[in-house]
Amino acid sequence: MPLNHLSRFINGICAICFFVLILSSSCFAGDIIAVIVNKGNSVDFLSESDIRRIYTNNMLEWADGAPITIYDLSLQDNLRAGFSEKILGKPPYQVAEEWAHLKINNQAKNPPVTVKSQTIVIRKVSLERGAIGYVSAGAVKDNPAVKIVRTIQ
Predict the structure, then answer these.
(1) 34: which strand partners?
(2) Which of 38, 56, 105, 110 is the most exposed place for a label (fewest CB within 10 A)?
(3) Cα separations (Å) of 129 from 38, 41, 61?
(4) Could you tell me which residues are beta bridge partners of residue 150?
């Protein structure tokens, strides 16, 4: 292949990759995030402020005194990026750095448990009365073991 043709071919591939990246990013932007708790939890609604307090080491137990177990998705997960930006006002890596700093200084009272998938978040929350997590609203639709306490667009 002559150099000129190769250059056009590579530019075409780059354009396609860029288009796919933009398309996948915009698909995430439309995802609705569902904040979920165990069906046995007495909480039926949480404000964004409440969720922020839970995910930033400032709210450690539910109103009935039950300890909160926090579930978080991996740093690479697009849903975590959306949750971190919309609720915590920071990118996930910055939130992770803050938790690492708290752990180093022995100030992390209730750090989130990071799991690999939304399926695991749903399973953990469905099994633990004090658990909280977030998933795509579509992933938890009609699941009787958990309840949605907040949706985030």
Answers:
(1) 135, 151
(2) 105
(3) 5, 6, 12
(4) 35
Residue 80 has pLDDT above 60, yes or no: yes
Q: φ, ψ for residue 31 (rounded to 5)?
A: -65, 140
- Contact (CB, 8 A) for 42 and 63: yes
Give just the sign of the alpha carbon dihedral 112, 60, 81, 153. positive
The side-by-side arrangement of strands in the sheet containing 69-73 is 113-115, 69-73, 131-136, 33-38, 146-152
Tell me which DSSP letter residue 67 carries.
B
The structure tokens listed for 148 are 């949605």
pLDDT at 6: 46
Q: How far is Cα 143 from Cα 139, in angstroms, rounded to an integer?
A: 9
pLDDT digits (tens, 9 = 90+) for 93-135: 999 999 999 999 999 999 999 999 999 999 999 999 999 999 9
DSSP code per residue over 2-28: -HHHHHHHHHHHHHHHHHHHHHHHHHH
Distance of CA 120 to the CA centre of its chain: 12
